[in-house]
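To: structure desk
From: M.T.
Subject: fold request, one chain
Message: Could you run this one when you get a chance? Sequence is below, nothing fancy, just the single chain.
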Amino acid sequence: MNTLTIIAVASGGAIGATLRLLLNGLINRHFIHPLPLGTLGVNLLGSLIIGILFAYFHLNTSLSPHLKTFMVTGILGALTTYSTFAIESFFLLEAGHYTHAFINMALNVFGTIFMAGIGYLLVLQLAK
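Reply: Done. C-alpha cells follow.
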C-alpha cells in the first residue's frame, strides 16, 4: 500500500464521516420514529451511490485507482454505518422491541442490496 492510497482513504473518510453526521442528524430531526431512520437513510443512500459508482467504474476503466479508493473506501466507507446499524438493532432487541428490530434489520439488509442494484443498473441503462 502506498502513501497516495492512504491519503485517498483518509481524506475520503473525513468527508464521508462528516456527511454521515450531517445526514443522520437531519433525517432523525425531521423523521421521529422508533426505528433509527437516520442510519437506515445513510445506509440506503450509500448503497445506491456504490451501485452507481461501480457501474461508472465498469464503463470507465481508465479511472485512477486512487480516485476509486477515495470514493468507495474513503467516502462511502465512512458514510455507511453498518456497525451503528448492528448496535441499534441489538438495543431494539434488548429492549424487547422485536418487531421494530426485525423491520430495521430487514430494511437495512434487503434495502441496501436493492439500492446498490438499482444504482448499478440505472447507470448501465443510462449509458446505453
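Reply (cont.): The mean pLDDT is 95. Let me know if you need anything else for the meeting.
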